[in-house]
Write the structure tokens for this entry.
Amino acid sequence: MKILFLDQSGKPGGAELCLLDIAMCHRGQCLVGLFEDGAFRQLLEENQIAVQILSQAAIGVRKQSSWLAGLKSVRQLAPLIAKVVHLSRQYDLIYANTQKALVVGAIASLVSGRPLVYHLHDILSLEHFSSTNQRLAVALANRARLVIANSQASRTAFIEAGGNPETVHVVYNGFHLQQYQENHNQAKILRLTLELQEKFVIGHFSRLSPWKGQHVLLEALSHCSENVVAVFVGDALFGEQDYVQQLQSQVDHLGLRDRVTFLGFRSDVIPLMQMCDLVVHTSTVAEPFGRVIVEAMLCGTPVIAAKAGGALELVESGETGWLVTPGDVHELADAIAHCQQNSTEAAAIAQRAQHEAQRRFNLDTINQQSAHLLASKALKISSSK
Ligand code: UDP
Ligand code: GLC
């Protein structure tokens, strides 16, 4: 099966890291077409996955854009679509991994006749998208032979927005279990380097963006005991510089300079998570899936997540982690204190979570599910031989 993957981003966000793992399975038989250059291209190349940059400038339409902005981008899209039409003739199917990739992929599929698959990494609600973008996404996705939703939450929102229930199937993100072997030495060295010995360390792993809610953790931290510190891992990937400024001012305003570290984007997330006493996820609107939640579980680090969207499918509160109301600072501070004061319970919960995550999110099993769906639904190959 030869696949032309399309993704609009040059940066390695969660959807791109998920695509990397899927493309790895089709290495040698696929091409990843990106609409902008960046660190994601390097990551694909390091993993020997063929990649091509299909557009010279990033497309200027955002999740909340109006139809007018959409129209303006048509001039930019035309040469890109022509390229994809041409390329797609050498592949069995077009696999769109993001919204703008869906627009380009759907039109190209119409021209070249190659089947379209859409990997839906978003909750298509008005919290996340303008109504124009939502309608466009659903109309185009309804042209796909197969829509892969990253969670039940994303699937449900898609159907509520008018998506065809027959074509949408849930496949969770998968993870390389062997990468999560515990390495106490590395964790110890990291804590020493970051001067975090004797502290109760909370890790927050996410790009810096208002809806990821770093400000909620900062506020909660000001209600926690003095030896609780927070490490923020992640960068503003999509130009959220105002939010970065806001977080810095909040740190000063709350007098948290000595208790907060911003590490920027890191490629050593696993040892960093293993170093933490607790990982906190604070998205203020429903998280479509939440890779960082599963990663923390696989690391054996206790996790508190915001109770909405995909997180409800990942964590059973009190059993494999804790769920708190999104944006509720006091509930979060109480949950952190509970975890800090009940370390035996926290360790047992983290161990249970690790087993659950190993059972449910094994990349090999998940890749088999995807391959089966692609063959049976997108290429309509019958499995009865
Ligand atoms: N991540 C990373 N380095 C960082 C911050 C995050 O590699 O500095 C990874 C993180 O481990 C996770 C992904 O980025 O795999 C973020 O995915 P998630 O689904 O949590 O959120 P998204 O940003 O896609 O909405
Ligand atoms: C998107 C979503 C995130 C999800 C990731 C992988 O980036 O925001 O919740 O985990 O895709 O599916």
In short: The first strand starts at residue 3 and ends at 7.
